[in-house]
Design a protein that fits this description.
Length: 119
């Protein structure tokens, strides 16, 4: 009887650890990013990130976009719109290809490349 208990305790510990890990994985924030791939150099490039957890919008984060292009690197903070929405507006003067990275809090929310069509 005692030997059987000793064999089931490690199994119970493994099951509890798996359930805790799954709960932590599903409780993290989720990001949806909308950013155009092409923009005119005379108009601002606008990207929007929606932050949710379990389907509910999350506010109160610090969000930044870092753009690297022909004129160097620029870091721009987001404007919080409410309901879990964050907007970035950046004028990509001069045109060319820019790579961007969007950080919300300490997490990567999106990355990619945008082309600003010169005048």
């Amino acid at each position: 009887m005692v030997g059987m208990r000793l064999r089931t305790i490690p199994l119970l510990v493994v099951i509890v650890a798996c359930v805790a890990a799954l709960g932590a994985w599903t409780d993290r924030p989720h990001f949806q990013t909308k950013a155009p791939l092409v923009t005119a150099a005379t108009k601002p490039w606008t990207a929007v990130v929606k932050v949710t957890r379990r389907g509910r919008p999350l506010d109160g984060y610090r969000a930044f976009v870092t753009l690297t292009g022909p004129r160097g690197t620029e870091r721009v903070p987001a404007q919080e719109l409410g309901s879990g929405l964050y907007r970035f507006r950046v004028k990509l003067a001069g045109g060319g290809f820019y790579s961007y990275t969007i950080l919300v809090g300490d997490r990567l929310a999106g990355h990619g490349t945008v082309y600003a069509v010169p005048n």
